C-alpha cells in the first residue's frame, strides 16, 4: 500500500524514549531471559488485540513474558535508530517490510543466525522459496518471512469473455485488451500516474519487473536507463495516456473508477479484495449491477498475479513480504520460541487479521486461509466470494514476487526512493508528452543516483 509520510526525528525520539521503559535493555539481556520485548508494525487497535491474545497464550504455555509494543510504519526507521543509539533494541520486531529488513542488515542490527535455525526447525520446505530468497543475504537468512500482499492486475471477466480476449498476463495481451475495451464510456484500464503517489511507483514497478527492468544491477549501480526500463516506461505511459482515465489518477481514483464499472482493468493491491466483495462500507462497489448485488463485481473480476514483458526472462510481480526480525542483542532462546510460536500455533490468527493482505508464506495453511473471515464492517471468507482458481493464484503469488534493489542489498535506497518518488515523476512526464521514454529513464536514473549519494553508507 502507499508509503506513509516519514515522521520527523523528534517524534521518533519521543517514541523511542517511551519505548525504553520496556525495551530489551541491550547488554542486560541474556540468551536465557524469561522476558522479551516485541515491536510490531501491525499497530491498529483491532490487530493489537489479536496479537495480545496470542501473546497471553504463548506466555501461559512457555512462562516467557512478552511486552508487545505497536510501532507505526512511518516512524520505524527513526525509532529504530534512536533505540539502537540508546542500546535499547527490542528482542523481536514483527511485520517488517523487506526494505526495513535490509536497513537493519546495513546497520548490523540483526541476528542472522537464529532465523535460519527457526526455519529449519519448522521445515524449510514448508516456506515459499521466493520469500526465503528475498530475506536472504550472503547465504544468511536475515529474518523469518511471515506473510505477504500482492500487486494484481484485476480485469472484468464478463467484458473479456464477450470480446474474446485472453487474460492480461503479458504486455501484448494487456495492450490488446486495453485498446479493444476502451470504448462506450469504459476505459480500457485505470492506471495510477500521479507523480507524488507512492502507489504509482508500486504499480510501475509491477510493470517494470515483468520486463526485466531493475533499479540497480548486481554491483549496486543504478540501471534505470536500460532498454528494458525504457520499454517499460513507454508501455506504462502509453496505457495511461491512451486507454486510462484522463488526469493524474492515484490510489483512490483508480479504485473508484473500477468500482463504478467505468474501467475494464486496474492495477491494485490484494487489499482491495474485501472491499470489492462489499465488506467495507467506506469503499463499496458502485457499479449499476452492484447496487442490488454487492458481490457482483467480485464475482465478475479475474485476477492476474504475475505479468511477463517481451524482454523479461520470466513472469514477475510486485509484492511485499513482511517478516519477523530478531535483533543482534536479543535474548535468543525466548525470542526464537516466540517467533516459532507465531509461525505455528499462532499463525492462523496472525494471517487472519487481514487475510486479503496476508497470504501465508508457509505451506499447509492453505485451507485455513481460504476460510478466514475477511472484511471490516461485514466479514466473510474469501472462499465464499472468489472462485478456487483465483484463491490458488493468490496463495501462490509470493513465489513470483520480485522487488527492486532488495536482492542487491539496496534496501535503504529503495526506502529513500519511495520517499522522494523520482520514478513516478519521470513516468508522469512521459504520459503528458514532455519527455520521451528514453529521456524519462535517464532522468529517473540521475535522480536515483543523486538520492544514493545522499544516503549514509
TrEMBL record:
PROSITE patterns in the cross-refs: PROKAR_LIPOPROTEIN
In its UniProt entry, the species of origin is given as Nonomuraea thailandensis
Name of this chain's protein: Multiple sugar transport system substrate-binding protein
Q: Source organism's superkingdom?
A: Bacteria
Q: Where is the signal peptide?
A: 1-23
Keyword set for this entry?
Signal, Sugar transport, Transport
| Pfam name, any one | SBP_bac_1
For this chain, the family text in UniProt reads: Belongs to the bacterial solute-binding protein 1 family.
Amino acid at each position: 500500500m502507499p508509503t506513509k509520510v516519514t515522521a520527523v526525528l523528534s517524534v521518533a525520539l519521543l517514541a523511542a524514549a517511551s519505548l525504553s521503559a520496556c525495551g530489551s535493555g541491550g547488554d542486560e539481556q541474556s540468551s536465557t531471559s524469561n522476558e522479551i520485548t516485541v515491536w510490531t508494525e501491525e499497530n491498529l487497535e483491532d490487530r493489537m488485540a489479536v496479537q495480545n491474545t496470542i501473546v497471553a497464550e504463548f506466555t501461559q504455555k512457555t512462562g516467557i513474558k512478552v511486552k508487545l509494543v505497536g510501532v507505526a510504519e512511518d516512524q520505524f526507521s527513526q525509532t529504530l535508530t534512536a533505540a539502537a543509539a540508546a542500546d535499547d533494541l527490542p528482542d523481536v520486531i514483527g511485520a517488517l517490510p523487506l526494505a526495513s529488513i535490509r536497513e537493519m542488515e546495513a546497520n548490523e542490527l540483526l541476528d542472522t543466525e537464529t532465523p535460519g535455525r527457526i526455519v529449519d526447525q519448522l521445515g524449510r520446505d514448508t516456506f515459499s522459496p521466493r520469500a526465503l530468497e528475498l530475506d536472504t543475504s550472503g547465504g544468511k537468512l536475515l529474518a523469518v518471512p511471515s506473510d505477504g500482499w500482492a500487486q494484481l492486475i484485476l480485469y472484468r471477466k464478463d467484458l473479456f469473455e464477450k470480446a474474446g480476449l485472453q487474460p492480461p498476463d503479458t504486455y501484448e495481451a494487456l495492450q490488446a485488451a486495453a485498446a479493444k475495451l476502451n470504448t462506450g464510456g469504459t476505459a480500457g484500464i485505470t492506471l495510477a500516474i500521479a507523480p507524488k503517489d507512492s502507489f504509482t511507483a508500486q504499480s510501475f514497478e509491477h510493470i517494470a519487473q515483468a520486463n526485466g527492468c531493475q533499479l540497480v544491477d548486481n554491483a549496486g549501480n543504478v540501471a534505470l536507463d536500460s532498454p528494458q526500463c525504457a520499454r517499460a516506461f513507454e508501455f506504462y505511459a502509453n496505457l495511461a495516456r491512451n486507454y486510462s482515465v484522463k488526469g493524474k489518477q492515484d490510489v483512490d481514483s483508480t479504485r473508484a473508477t473500477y468500482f463504478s464499472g467505468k474501467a475494464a482493468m486496474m492495477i491494485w493491491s490484494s487489499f482491495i479484495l474485501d472491499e470489492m466483495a462489499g465488506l467495507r462500507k467506506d469503499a463499496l462497489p458502485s457499479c449499476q449491477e452492484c447496487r442490488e448485488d454487492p458481490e457482483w463485481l467480485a464475482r465478475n473480476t479475474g485476477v492476474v498475479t504475475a505479468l511477463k514483458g517481451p524482454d523479461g526472462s520470466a513472469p514477475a510481480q510486485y509484492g511485499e513480504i513482511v517478516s519477523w526480525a530478531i535483533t543482534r542483542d536479543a535474548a535468543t532462546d525466548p525470542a526464537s520460541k516466540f517467533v516459532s510460536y507465531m509461525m505455528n500455533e499462532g499463525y492462523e490468527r496472525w494471517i487472519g487479521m487481514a487475510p486479503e493482505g496476508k497470504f501465508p508464506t508457509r505451506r499447509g495453511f492453505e485451507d485455513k486461509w481460504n476460510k478466514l473471515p475477511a472484511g471490516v464492517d461485514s466479514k466473510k471468507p474469501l472462499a465464499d466470494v472468489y472462485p478456487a482458481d483465483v484463491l490458488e493464484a493468490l496463495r501462490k503469488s509470493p513465489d513470483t514476487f520480485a522487488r527492486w534493489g532488495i536482492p542487491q542489498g539496496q534496501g535503504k535506497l529503495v526506502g529513500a526512493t519511495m520517499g522522494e518518488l523520482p520514478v513516478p515523476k519521470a513516468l508522469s512526464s512521459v504520459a503528458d508528452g514532455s519527455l520521451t521514454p528514453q529521456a524519462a529513464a535517464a532522468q529517473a536514473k540521475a535522480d536515483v543516483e543523486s538520492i544514493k549519494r545522499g544516503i549514509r553508507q
